[in-house]
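Lecture notes, continued. The same structure-token format from the folding unit now serves as the input rather than the output. Read the line below as a description of shape only.
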């Protein structure tokens, strides 16, 4: 119910901005970006041990922050595609 209410509010806000549609989308993405980053990182907070199994390329704990950053930076494009 909360997600539906937020979606309805976002739709109403975008409609209200009408001629500033792109600006409204950018504003919504920027407002949600910190929450998305937190949600992506949340499962890692209680992690005490990481076991990585990989093939080619970089492997290691140092790769995890880069993966999270990559996911967050791809978010605006995904929102635009929606």
């Amino acid at each position: 119910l909360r997600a539906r209410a937020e979606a309805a509010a976002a739709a109403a806000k975008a409609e209200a901005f009408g001629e500033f549609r792109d600006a409204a989308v950018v504003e919504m993405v920027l407002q949600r970006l910190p929450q998305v980053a937190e949600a992506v990182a949340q499962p890692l907070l209680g992690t005490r041990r990481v076991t990585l199994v990989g093939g080619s390329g970089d492997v290691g704990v140092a790769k995890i922050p880069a993966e999270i950053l990559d996911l967050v930076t791809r978010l605006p494009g995904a929102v635009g595609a929606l």
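Point for the exam: The chain has one domain: 1-80.
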